[in-house]
Design brief:
The protein is α+β, with helices and mostly antiparallel strands. It contains 14 helices and 19 strands. Helix content is 33%, strand content 23%. The longest helix has 19 residues, at 168-186. Residues 7-20 have low confidence and may be disordered.
Length: 457
């Protein structure tokens, strides 16, 4: 599947340069942009009415148009248009600020100098990007600039994409990109008043906002082991524990182009080499780590599955697109039955998933769940294993230039009748603790190893 809709957010990579101040748009311009977006959703999106009836979506757009009663800048309009994410509930339907908005703020605005994480409905400090490290990593934050953490989370989640009727993907996105999405909704204050509780005593700390180049420098200075150049240098790799007869296969991405450009790896060659090595051992257990894997090329998923499923299998039952207002059958990647590879892993398989397991990584997970006795460990996947939409069309709203990505092709993996709007539910639901995260411990993988030590499933 194309990498459109996978949050390798280009907004984080745009070059910085000085741009004029943001324009103010008229009521008519903003209304026209909303109607343009609505019309393109109706024209292209095959899952537009999967979770909400047409009447409700039409009514919501009508209410948004009515709510625009004065001119506003892009930031204010972005806060309005992103409210549609809670209605469409499709993780591949992205709404991002305009290129000029992002570039201007990357160049000229200052940001929160903390990496904030979300854990069990709370905000906490993951990393401190200030010169004096004035607040400890792991600190639970009660409020930012007088707004309670629960309210901040609710405001951000209400505007965040999700895949179905759950928020695993939305939580993962905010846990990963909190600083950016916070700035889109709450702006760029010069200082941040952080309220937190320590030893049962409420405390306050005021932090000066920093430019991004300063944040990145302090990040490197304060956490040299985490951000060393050689850390995470491979997108696909295998670790083997001979004492447990267990191989751990990590696949960070299924995009051939990203694996090539970011990690200098070829998916097919790497996977073939790994499974020849596995076959030479062979281990009794295989742990497949698909956490934080945003998806990618379906063909790569099929190749992986051919080593893991010992009978002919399908990854997608059918593909559909919108034609004259209705979904009709169409072609798609890797249709029909696929044959197993001559080399097969024959032991017990465990699959690690979380809210960042999305798109093609969930297609792979759904196929494994249907065709093997794999044990799933972690948290609910961000992507939907029954139906999703891909092959996004990239557009700009005519006036504000806000970027939108609208899927054009529906993938049905199990059938619409099976769709409950949930992700892949793990056999064992295990989340890493804040302490695990801060100390680079993998509590989920450790749980799998304990299962294996105790004799398996």
């Amino acid at each position: 599947m194309r990498k459109t809709g996978c949050l390798l957010l280009l907004i984080l990579l745009l070059a910085s340069h000085h741009l004029p101040a943001q324009s103010v748009f008229s009521v008519q311009q903003l209304s026209d942009d909303l109607r343009f977006y609505q019309s393109k959703l109706e024209q292209y999106h095959p899952d537009l009415y999967l979770y909400q009836p047409k009447e409700k979506i039409d009514g919501f757009f009508d209410s948004l148009v009515r709510s625009i009663n004065a001119p506003m800048e892009e930031a204010g309009f972005y806060r309005k248009v992103t409210l549609t994410s809670n209605l469409v509930r499709d993780g591949h339907t992205l709404i991002l600020p305009s290129d000029s908005f992002v570039a201007e703020h990357n160049a000229k605005s200052r940001f929160l100098p903390l990496q904030i994480g979300l854990h069990q409905g709370q905000l906490y400090v993951k990393m401190n990007y200030t010169p004096s490290m004035m607040i400890e990593d792991g600190t639970i934050i009660d409020s930012i600039n007088g707004i309670a953490s629960a309210e901040i989370i609710a405001e951000l989640l209400n505007r965040q994409v999700r895949d179905g009727n759950h928020l695993s993907y939305a939580y993962w996105i905010l846990d990963t990109y909190f600083r950016e999405y916070y700035s889109y909704v709450f702006g760029h204050p010069e200082t941040y008043d952080i309220a937190y509780t320590k030893n049962s005593i409420s405390q306050h700390l005021r932090l000066e906002a920093l430019y991004k180049d300063s944040i990145y420098q302090y990040r490197k200075n304060n956490y040299p082991a985490v951000y060393a150049d050689d850390v995470r240098s491979k997108g696909i790799y295998l670790n083997y524990d001979s004492s447990r007869s267990t191989a751990v296969l990590v696949i960070k991405d299924f995009h051939s182009d990203i694996l090539k450009s970011e990690y200098n790896q070829n998916f097919s060659q790497t996977i073939q080499s790994i499974f020849h090595f596995i076959d030479s051992l062979p281990p009794r257990n295989l742990v497949l780590d698909l956490r934080d894997n945003q998806g990618g090329d379906v063909e790569n998923g099929v190749l992986l599955l051919s080593y893991l499923i010992n009978r002919p299998f399908k990854v997608v039952q059918e593909y559909n697109r919108v034609k004259h207002g209705k979904n009709v059958r169409c072609g798609g990647p890797s249709p029909g039955l696929h044959q197993p590879n001559k080399i097969q892993f024959k032991g017990q398989m465990y699959v690690l998933i979380n809210g960042g397991s999305f798109s093609n990584s969930v297609i792979v997970s759904a196929c494994l769940k249907a065709n093997t006795n794999a044990v799933f460990v972690g948290t609910e996947s961000g992507g939907n294993p029954n139906v999703l939409a891909g092959y996004a069309k990239e557009l700009e709203l005519p006036n504000t230039k806000i970027r939108v990505e609208i899927p054009t092709k529906q993938f049905i993996m199990t059938g619409l009748m099976s769709n409950d709007g949930r992700g892949v539910i793990p056999t064992y639901e295990i989340d890493n603790t804040i302490d695990d995260i801060l100390h680079q411990r993998d509590g989920q993988l450790e749980f799998v190893m304990r299962l294996i030590a105790q004799g398996g499933k």
